[in-house]
Amino acid sequence: MNYIDVFNGDADGICALIQLRKVNPQKSQLVTGVKRDIELLKRINGTSEDHISVLDISFDRNRTDVQRLLNQGASIEYFDHHYCGSLVHHPRLSTVINDQSADICTGLIVDQHIGGLFRAWALVAAFGDNMNTAGMKLGQASGYSQDSLTSLQRLGMYINYNSYGNSLSDLFYHPDKLYQYLLQYDSPFDFIHEDTEIYNTLDNGYKEDIAKAKASPFLHQSADSAVMLFRNEKWARRINGVFINDLVGQYPDRAHAVITVNTDSICSVNIRTPLNRKTKPADQLARKFESGGGRKSAAGINALHIDQIDHFVDSFKKYFS
After folding, report:
1. Arch. (CATH architecture) of 216-319
2. Alpha helices by DSSP H, the chain
3. N or C: more exposed end of the chain, with fewer CB within 10 A?
4. Would you say 308 and 289 are in contact if contact means Cβ atoms under 8 Å apart?
5. Which pLDDT tens digit goes with each residue over 124-146?
6. What is the pTM of this model?
């Protein structure tokens, strides 16, 4: 059997796969990319000898390729928490998908699937996906101290920070290499204490980038919502997702968007719902724009033309008012 692991390059995708491969070690082909590289199944072909594990990429965005790979004879197991749309039913397709809750991530789905055997990695996934309340609640129930949970929270943030960029050249570490480094450790605490070079590289990069983000302009700011604009630079592409999560924590009653200019004419957009105020789902707004998608509390638009910025800001203000 030939094993292929296809996973989002963010903290949730990486930590979900770590858990899966800790309980079922396999030598596998790794297929991943930057966080916004969602349609990863396009990269592979399948045969009857292939078992494909897919983690933390939207089923809706990959449905056509799921069907193609099944037709080619492959077997697929699919773990995810993003909007899935209509599922494909097939005897060689197993789906563990929950897109109904804003408090679940793929790492927590895998944690439930394997009975919590590598709970600390699931907590890193949750914290990396900005599910701090869910992560703290589960961590405390699992017996972790506040200091330990703070360490896991910071690691999740740094792994997630490493996934943002237009291309792999924007990142400090290729996600498949970072996954392989982390997989060596049964516990994330061992990684934190033993592999200080990787941890310190991400820590220093984060601190430098966050300082530049804080100096960026607001396009709109009110009690209900705020929109920031980042210019076309590597630091902006790396920090936008993590910085917007920080904003959500600082201003929990406000919806947030960060628009990052990626070329002369194209931007990417990060969207977050308020923590303390119930609103319509973020992914519904994102899907009104071509290349938009995500989940209820966090969504994005991969390619927004610069001429559409004003239209997006107006739509965002009205949607979250």
Report:
1. Roll (3.10)
2. 11-23, 59-71, 106-113, 119-128, 132-141, 146-161, 175-183, 188-194, 196-214, 234-250, 282-286, 309-319
3. N
4. yes
5. 999 999 899 999 999 999 999 99
6. 0.86
